């Protein structure tokens, strides 16, 4: 997809989208409702002509190519099975524009596909006797029937309850791997996106914010939107303070509150701004100077929690911060406990072992290591 723009009247649903999906890849578009995910998918499927920009599949231009000639299979959010047809007839409907692969009859192909989606022997059933997850697997079998070169999935799990969704996403991923089929998956669920994808594109307001493997997006968000959208995060804005090592004076903290250590300029002789010696630089070698405003983030799971106020003399051995905070509220999550803390007037969230419990108003010390602080962007 190159410089894709889709306009509805005066509003741009897509505002210059460039994306390249690799062959065999499970590629996910994720973003809040209304950001342009479905529009992107509809352009790929051929249901929508972009206002400007181009799409190529396997090097071939899709301009003016109708949906049925694109070699794409689509599964939508709603089950969209024909209620008056049996499960087998629904799957066979996927073959209406193509012959079954050489050497197979239609009914053999249908049986093969029902095996693939783990519904063997379901051909004669009525769709309305199936669970939501089973119906979506029939829809998947129908989309895969003509052996498309590209599989497009538009929130196929969103109508299912949480447990079914988790099971179905594992099944879909396994089928995708088995067939090695290039797949573009749309979801608003960031957890789902991280769980199943080879690569993810985060979209906001018709624009791509960042593209990369799940771990990279999670560990090194490059925009504030990505830092806040993918998983829980502490996003802090502040000004670099010249100290040794440099640290961040966080906006909104009371006078006398500690600062957040920064992951660069750690050598005593290194002035702020000279990152040549910085070992744990997570900011792509960018140089920074005192007074500059930065957006940084620290994952709650990276914030260590100790009971009681910090001991005399601040900080740890390696420039780690020991921040004085008070517990404001706690959430028991089973395997973890989430603590919402007040740190000098600013909220900081920590995620700690579920076996530990804390009381509201309890004094705690929050430990933050410089290498866990990610510089997201300059303000
Ligand atoms: P998503 O799939 O991320 O929820 P969509 O791609 O459906 O978002 O929509 C992107 C934007 O385009 C939204 O602001 C939506 O209201 C608008 N939009 C989508 N389809 C139409 C349409 N047919 N007419 C006018 N506006 C539309």
UniProtKB/TrEMBL annotation:
Complex and partners: The complex is composed of two ATP-binding proteins (WtpC), two transmembrane proteins (WtpB) and a solute-binding protein (WtpA).
Gene3D superfamilies: 2.40.50.100, Nucleic acid-binding proteins, P-loop containing nucleotide triphosphate hydrolases
InterPro entries named among the record's database cross-references: AAA+_ATPase, ABC_SmlMolc_Importer, ABC_transporter-like_ATP-bd, ABC_transporter-like_CS, Mo/tungstate-bd_C_term_dom, NA-bd_OB-fold, P-loop_NTPase, Transp-assoc_OB_typ2
Protein name: Molybdate/tungstate import ATP-binding protein WtpC
Subcellular location: Cell membrane
Summary of the function given for this chain in its UniProt record: Part of the ABC transporter complex WtpABC involved in molybdate/tungstate import. Responsible for energy coupling to the transport system.
Gene Ontology molecular-function annotations: ABC-type tungstate transporter activity; ATP binding; ATP hydrolysis activity
EC numbers on record: 7.3.2.6
UniProt biased composition (Low complexity): 273-286
Chain residue ranges for the region called Disordered: 266-288
Membrane-protein topology: Peripheral membrane protein
Keywords: ATP-binding, Molybdenum, Nucleotide-binding, Transport
């Amino acid at each position: 997809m190159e410089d894709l723009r889709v306009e509805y009247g005066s509003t741009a649903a897509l505002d210059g989208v460039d994306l390249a999906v690799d062959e065999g890849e499970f590629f996910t578009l994720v973003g809040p409702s209304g950001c342009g995910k479905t529009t992107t998918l509809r352009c790929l499927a051929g249901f929508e002509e972009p206002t400007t920009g181009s799409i190529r599949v396997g090097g071939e231009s899709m301009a003016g190519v109708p949906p049925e000639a694109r070699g794409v299979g689509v599964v939508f959010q709603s089950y969209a099975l024909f209620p008056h047809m049996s499960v087998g007839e629904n799957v066979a409907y996927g073959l209406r524009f193509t012959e079954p692969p050489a050497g197979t009859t239609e009914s053999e192909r249908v049986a093969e596909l029902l095996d693939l989606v783990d519904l063997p022997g379901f051909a004669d059933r009525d769709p309305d006797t199936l669970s939501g997850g089973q119906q979506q697997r029939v829809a998947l079998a129908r989309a895969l029937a003509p052996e498309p070169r590209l599989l497009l999935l538009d929130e196929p799990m969103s109508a299912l309850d949480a447990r079914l969704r988790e099971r179905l996403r594992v099944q879909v991923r396994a089928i995708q791997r088995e067939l090695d089929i290039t797949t573009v998956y749309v979801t608003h669920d960031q957890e789902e996106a991280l769980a199943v994808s080879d690569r993810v594109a985060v979209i906001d307001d018709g624009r791509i914010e960042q593209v990369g493997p799940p771990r990279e997006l999670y560990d090194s968000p490059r925009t504030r939107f990505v830092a806040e959208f993918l998983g829980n995060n502490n996003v802090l804005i502040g000004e670099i303070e010249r100290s040794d090592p440099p640290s961040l004076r966080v906006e909104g903290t009371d006078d006398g509150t500690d600062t957040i250590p920064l992951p660069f300029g750690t050598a005593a002789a290194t002035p702020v701004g000279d990152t040549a010696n910085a070992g744990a630089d997570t900011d792509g070698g960018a140089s920074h100077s005192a007074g500059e405003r930065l957006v940084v983030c620290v994952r709650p799971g990276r914030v260590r929690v100790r009971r009681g106020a910090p001991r005399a003399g601040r900080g740890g051995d390696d420039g780690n911060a020991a921040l004085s905070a008070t517990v404001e509220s706690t959430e028991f999550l089973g395997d973890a406990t989430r603590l919402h803390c007040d740190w000098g007037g600013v909220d900081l969230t920590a995620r700690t072992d579920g076996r530990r419990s804390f009381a509201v108003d309890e004094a705690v010390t929050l430990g933050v290591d410089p290498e866990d602080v990610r510089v997201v962007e300059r303000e």
